[in-house]
């Protein structure tokens, strides 16, 4: 797979002149770091569903014959089980576009779940879904008549709400009132239907992993150092929000925010600024915190006489640590946050346009520029291990080809349980929402917001939410793409649905307007949501596997906000493979590259599926595999 | 090395760059010479535009070329239709924009842009405003752009509200920005002027009462909002000075009325002394003296030849005009330029007389800060004290508190003020001399107030660490002054304004210069023990004080001079002749 770590290793090896062959059983780049168009995501969901049913067929015979004497075969797993508990619900109205401004009467549509999203993604298959069992239970038959019935009725509704003239009949008024009491008459927004989402699907870039980039984090540093940043564009996160006392509030974190904040008194402003200034170089003032090194950061904050307001902001939104985090770690986290402020804007974070999935691809591109070869839909069946040296000397691919290699880099999900010493991995709970407005509308509707949601109950995990606007090139105009992430305590839906229902309006019936209080109506409506769990293998290390020493296992994305873990892992694997080489030195400017005819012709076909056949037999590598060239 | 990208070596790259630079320089020099030749040949054609364009694109600071360009454009303009002229200048604007990208702070570019807009038949101000916004978002302190923006705003009639919102936006994104705060201070009085004091009252609608004096003030409602804005800034970052300066502006500064504050007449000397509310140059101010209804031809002079502008001026009356003690006289001094005057009556039997407004009457020393209501100032003082509790070392806060205290009750807060000054000198030692001088000034003001309340002519301020003397014009009538045990270095020329001074005590200072002891007609005793007077020549000015009978110089370096007595008697013959007591 081409996850971030594998892509960075591949780029780094290729950059210093190693031959790299990069194989992936998927038909897309970036593995679990991928981002998809809406339709692409629907296909991915479909694949997930199908994989659950696939029978693992052993094709041992094919590769057995390629194993010589003195060699052992270590088969790889054909099944990727890193994603689980995937569920999808659609709340957008499924009417034709011309009716999209209508209020959908009750009983018209039912939620749709993953199992029912069929090949014809835009089809009528809106089977009802029992959210508890995950089974298709309700009949879809009743739907068609209903739908036809609605077509005429809501049109009147629209009429009344559009033209609210005094001439309206009493009846019309009543119907308007009953369907949407006190609906703000202004901004009759075009409702977004499911069809619309599908039609505009290309405008979405939905990441499986939701992370931000600290402007002074390992990833940004690497992008700059290696010159890979030229392959991507970035947008600043506009604001940091938090959910508190039932409300979404802006967190004043930069100097400008503190100045402008209306929630803080002037004294609080001073206290906050004073505390943050202290955190910037807290190491210089050990007397301030040494009595608290063994105590939680939270207690230290209390001791500093910070108000409730400020304690919340610092603990949950700036340091982003838990109730139990120790003081020094909390101070370090705060310091890191602050050091990242002001480099690119008034928040510490950047986000790549077109989604985080761009980042592994940028490194793939650099790898390709320096001669790396990429093959999608092409996997490795087994490793060929030399019995004497206990090293991998070759791999056998799914087409029965034997490719020799000197190092093999692979993602954790390819490893079979037999090769594992430990299966102590965690899970990440994820939800992806498409909504119709921001959780905190402001002057600019084109801001990326990072929202910290402290645990709703003491046992629940803290949830991190990133709301992407359409100018981040990840969703269609008029919608927001919202990512929720937390470390799992159960299924993603169990972990995240309570948070979603607090912050969003989740209609019981697709396309329905909230009818409860004004509060519910002020919340953004969820049009579509996907839940899934992703395996977090970041706690594993080489001692967790019983594999030859030249097999380097990369763990998948961790649950943290940034990608630093994956970058550091890449660097350490690289130094393991090539102890004497520099990690990602700056790539030369295109004008400084000398083309002498048979050199690699720049980045032309970079991402196409290269024909792998001529991949030099002497140099093979693997799935996210890099390889040290043999002479 | 199959598959490995080959990269030019550093040396290769350097060499390429060097060649490139050389080539550029050659091209530039030859183009420059061509342009200058054309200009001296008086050619104003398209080619000139092209050539200067090439040069200016790489170096927009070449002012001569812009000048030449203007000549050419003016020439071309004459031979074209109006819409062609429009096009000509529009393309000029595009060109300038490109130059600004090379150097956004080029004087030449911005100036030329202003000029082009005056030539454009139909200038597009909206576009220009957009350009300013863009430039200021890249560099919010580009003062060239600020200047240009003011021109654009003026020409295109952008509303003051919009401009105020613009400053809101800039201050919101970064409040460390003098330009924005300052701009704000020019906009607010236009948008929220303080109502004229009497205009609301029906009883005395005085349209003539010009609001001139307070025309830069802002109405109270808006002021309170501005105070809040400033609080937000200095509570967020108390070390950022821009908000503090704005705050000082908000607190205001009264402009004192220009007036004659005192007229003093001495029968014996036949002399009139006049004090003004500010230093003036009397000879050119149209001063006129009327004695008993008769305008007098008099010669005005300042109290010291080094003071060309001075708040105190003297003149001698014609001999014998007031010398008869049994006569009563009426004097009027007219300040014709300011349409103001002051009378003074010299009654029978009086040796001297004066007429004046005291510092207390004029609330003279409040004028440093604020004409605000004291309730507003009191609230502001509280806010600042709140901040000081959190930031006991903050110099801006300390200084502002001192100023607020002075505006509210200078004598009542004297002790706290002195303590704050002490802290200021400790936390900001780089400016301790400034604080000492400021503190001296406040102490002198307080002593003047106390003296006036006590209705005496004795000024005593000893052992208070005075480093400087000021407000000496307010001491015109003082007869005794005690400045002992301070840190004074000199008696400055202004000291000569103490026209009534009889006794001076200034022991235990570090005085080196006595310039100000000059023509003090009543000075009899001078005690300067333990000072730093080194040379006999430093005592020269004393010779002009004809009534001096006692001079104490013990403990000065000069005292050790050989033959001090004879030297002194030579220098100050009058003093010695009258059997003066020189120790």
TrEMBL record, chain A:
Keywords: Cytoplasm, GTPase activation. GO terms for biological process: intracellular protein transport; small GTPase-mediated signal transduction; vesicle-mediated transport. One of its GO terms (molecular function) is GTPase activator activity. It is found in: Cytoplasm, Cytosol. Residues 105-116, 134-143 have a biased composition (Polar residues). One of its GO terms (cellular component) is Rab-protein geranylgeranyltransferase complex. This is Rab proteins geranylgeranyltransferase component A. It comes from Cyprinus carpio carpio.
UniProtKB/TrEMBL annotation, chain B:
Keywords: Leucine-rich repeat, Phosphoprotein, Prenyltransferase, Repeat, Transferase. Residues 197-211 have a biased composition (Low complexity). It catalyses: geranylgeranyl diphosphate + L-cysteinyl-[protein] = S-geranylgeranyl-L-cysteinyl-[protein] + diphosphate. Residues 14-23 have a biased composition (Basic and acidic residues). InterPro entries: Leu-rich_rpt, Leu-rich_rpt_4, LRR_dom_sf, Prenyl_trans_a, RabGGT_asu_insert-dom_sf, RabGGT_asu_insert-domain. Residues 260-359 form the Rab geranylgeranyltransferase alpha subunit insert-domain domain. PANTHER family: GERANYLGERANYL TRANSFERASE TYPE-2 SUBUNIT ALPHA, PROTEIN FARNESYLTRANSFERASE ALPHA SUBUNIT/RAB GERANYLGERANYL TRANSFERASE ALPHA SUBUNIT. Belongs to the protein prenyltransferase subunit alpha family. Catalyzes the transfer of a geranylgeranyl moiety from geranylgeranyl diphosphate to both cysteines of Rab proteins with the C-terminal sequence -XXCC, -XCXC and -CCXX, such as RAB1A, RAB3A, RAB5A and RAB7A. Catalyzes the transfer of a geranyl-geranyl moiety from geranyl-geranyl pyrophosphate to cysteines occuring in specific C-terminal amino acid sequences. This is Geranylgeranyl transferase type-2 subunit alpha.
